[in-house]
Structures are given as structure tokens and as C-alpha cells.
Amino acid sequence: MVPRISRREAPARPRVEGDREQEILDAAIAVLVDAGYDRLTMDAVATKAKASKATLYRKWDGKADLVIDALMSQKTPLETPPDTGSLRGDLLSMYCGHGGLTDEHQTALLGSVVTAIGRDPEFAAAFRDRFIAPKVEVGRVVYERARQRGELRDDVDLDILTAALPGIVLHRGFLLGDPPTQDLIARVVDQVILPAATRG
């Protein structure tokens, strides 16, 4: 008779980590870009990653958890906000180029989850906390530095100001079909942000 193995004695499930974890996250990104968040399933990611669905559930509770980790794996961290010596220079440095608003891959990822933010409270909360909040904080540091240099008016509301540039650019991109470019960002900075925020 084969002795029964107690739960305490049962071997631990293998962890998903390292290169294999990144392969699964990359597969999640591929499915996300192709199908969007609403149609993404754990089965589809498992198939794309050539893994079992059980393997995914060893690491992630569900698709919201998996997608957030996948998005974070693609994110270009800005550990140190740009400091060019001027607000204009900082904004152009931060929002143009790799990881910024002109990065087509990043904006495609954002577009693939827009509907989920309005429909899935669990995903929306995690997305705002883990993906958006760090970007907002970096932006706030840039404006705080401008305030310390004496560039900003004393009455400027930084909560509104930090959201203005990405808000305008993403609105034009997603709703009006005007893709983010360095020229567009420069025009928004020069014609909206600086006149509204600076002492002139």
C-alpha cells in the first residue's frame, strides 16, 4: 500500500520566475496588444506562452494581476526625473522618446487597457496605483523643481498641471487621431503649459 502524503509533506509547487516568467509576461503583452484587455484570457496567454493555465495561476491570481505585472515589465522606469535647468527642457525630455508619449509601443499598451479602466474596478485600482502613480510623481517632481527655480506662478495647482500635458496629448491621439509627436508635445508645452504656469 502506498503511504499517503500529507499536505505538510507534499512538495511545493514550482515557482514561475526568471526567464520563464518574462516569457509569460511577454506573451501577455502580445495577447493584450492583439486582442485588448476585455478579450484577453488566461487560456490565450497560456497558449501564446506554451504553458499550462495552471502554471499561470501558480504566480498570478487572475488576468488583472497578470496584465499589471506584464505592463510593469515593459515600463521604462524614470528613477531620476530629468533636470535640464528649465521646465520646458524637462517636459520635452520626459515626454519625448523612449518610454514617453511619443513611444508608440507605450501608447499602444495604454490604448489596449483604456476600456478596462472603466469596466474593471480591480484592474483600474491596480493600474492607477502601480502604473500611473509613479509617472504622476515624476511629473510632480519636475514641476516642483520649476517652482523652486522661480519659474512657476505661486497660485498654480500642481495636481491639475501635472495631468494637463499627457491629458491633452492622449486626448488628441485616442479621440482625434492626431498621433503624439515631438512637435505636438512642444506645441502643447509652448502654447498651453508654459503660458498657464509660468511667470512669463
Automatic annotation (TrEMBL):
<keyword id="KW-0805">Transcription regulation</keyword>
<dbReference type="InterPro" id="IPR011075">
    <property type="entry name" value="TetR_C"/>
</dbReference>
<feature type="DNA-binding region" description="H-T-H motif">
    <location>
        <begin position="41"/>
        <end position="60"/>
    </location>
</feature>
<keyword id="KW-0804">Transcription</keyword>
<dbReference type="GO" id="GO:0003700">
    <property type="term" value="F:DNA-binding transcription factor activity"/>
</dbReference>
<dbReference type="InterPro" id="IPR009057">
    <property type="entry name" value="Homeodomain-like_sf"/>
</dbReference>
<dbReference type="Pfam" id="PF00440">
    <property type="entry name" value="TetR_N"/>
</dbReference>
<keyword id="KW-0238">DNA-binding</keyword>
<dbReference type="GO" id="GO:0000976">
    <property type="term" value="F:transcription cis-regulatory region binding"/>
</dbReference>
<protein>
    <submittedName>
        <fullName>AcrR family transcriptional regulator</fullName>
    </submittedName>
</protein>
<feature type="domain" description="HTH tetR-type">
    <location>
        <begin position="18"/>
        <end position="78"/>
    </location>
</feature>
<dbReference type="InterPro" id="IPR036271">
    <property type="entry name" value="Tet_transcr_reg_TetR-rel_C_sf"/>
</dbReference>
<dbReference type="InterPro" id="IPR050109">
    <property type="entry name" value="HTH-type_TetR-like_transc_reg"/>
</dbReference>
<dbReference type="Pfam" id="PF16859">
    <property type="entry name" value="TetR_C_11"/>
</dbReference>
<dbReference type="InterPro" id="IPR001647">
    <property type="entry name" value="HTH_TetR"/>
</dbReference>
